[in-house]
Each structure stands twice: as C-alpha cells, then as structure tokens.
Amino acid sequence: MFLPLLIAAVVGYILGALPFGYLVARAKGINIFEHGSKNPGATNVKRVLGEKFGPSGKRLGNLVFLLDALKGAAATGWPFLRAVLFHSSFVAGEDLQTRTINLAITGLVFSLLGHSFSCFTKFKGGKGVATAAGGFTVLMPYAMLISLGVWIITFYASRYVSLASILASVALPIAAFFLRQPPVLLGLAVVIAAFVVIRHRANVKRLMNGTENRFVKKPAEPKA
Q1: For a surface tag, which of 53, 115, 126, 164 has the fewest beta carbons within 10 Å of its beta carbon?
Q2: Which segments of 140-200 does DSSP mark as H helices, in order?
Q3: pTM here?
Q4: In the chain, what are the domain boundaries?
C-alpha cells in the first residue's frame, strides 16, 4: 500500500501546486504577489483584476476559483475513477473501498499542501478554500452543499469573503457529524477546517480591528 499512497501524495501535491492564480494574473501583465493582499488565491485575483479590468477581470477571478477547485477534485477523485475502471468489485469490496478512500484522502491533503506551499512559486500559495472545496465535493457532497450554503449566507450578509470562508470551513465538520459521515472523513474535515482557519489568521486580526476588505458593489455612475 505504500507505493499507491506515495503516488497519491505526489500526484496530489503536483496538482495542488499548479499556480493558476499567479498564471492567470501574469497573463494580464500582473504579478499577483505584488498586489492587493499579495495572495494568489481567487479572492485577491478577482479584487485586483476587477479593479484594473472591470467585469472581465472579476470573471478571471471566478475562473481561478474554478480551476483551484478542480485540482482538488482531481487529486481526490482519481482513486475512485481508478477503482471503478479497474476493479469491478469496488462496490462490494469493503477492503478495496477503504484503500480507495485512503488514497483519496492522501490526494486531497497533499493537493492542499501543494496549493498553499507551491514549489512553482517559491513555496508561496493560497489559503486552500477552493482546493479543499473541490476535494470535499467528491468525498462528502451533501456536507459540502451545507458548507456552501453557509458561505453564501455569510458573504451576502457581511460581504466579507474571509469570514464566509472561515464559517463555511467550520460548518463542514459539523455538517459531516450530523450527516453521520465515517469517522475518518469527519476527522479529515476537522483537520482541514483548522488548517483553513489558521491560514486566515491575518484576516481574523483585520476582522477584529475592522480593517478587513469587503466586496461592496460600487454605485452605478450617473448617466450624462
């Protein structure tokens, strides 16, 4: 089992380390590490490119979120695809299911590490929200749906992306508990929620100080 776990870890890290936020911003002539919060995550890309290029820049930020989520989903999902394609006993074989879930968890954990500490950007990276969301959509879709609902409600009530991300991360293991997810997935959700909150510690300080940036719609300019 060591070799498959090693492969899952390496594949997960490489996928997670793909710096989509940096690459998308760089394609527009901007080094995202020198602008805004200097974070290559989707939120900072959307804010920086939105200010410079308007709606098209904001759409690029949404694209970064989607790509970051997809790499988490890919790192987590390929062991399930492999099991379905090459092991017809996947549904009935409890041992095979356990091995597959272990590979998926390893892929998710290392994709999150790759995203947050990318070898392609001198071990700098994002905070892991989108990548974790993509992975948990594969592992626990219903719990992830509840977490998404918390994110949407919090964001539109406060306009703070960071607060929405923190509360959604905390909501995930709570939802997993009430949905009676396997203990290993519940434990994983707790660990990754803690990781995401720790990665947002600077945002927490700014929220407490009242200096955190908000996404506020600009009033329409009056017509001439």
Answers
A1: 53
A2: 141-158, 161-178, 183-199
A3: 0.89
A4: 1-122, 140-212
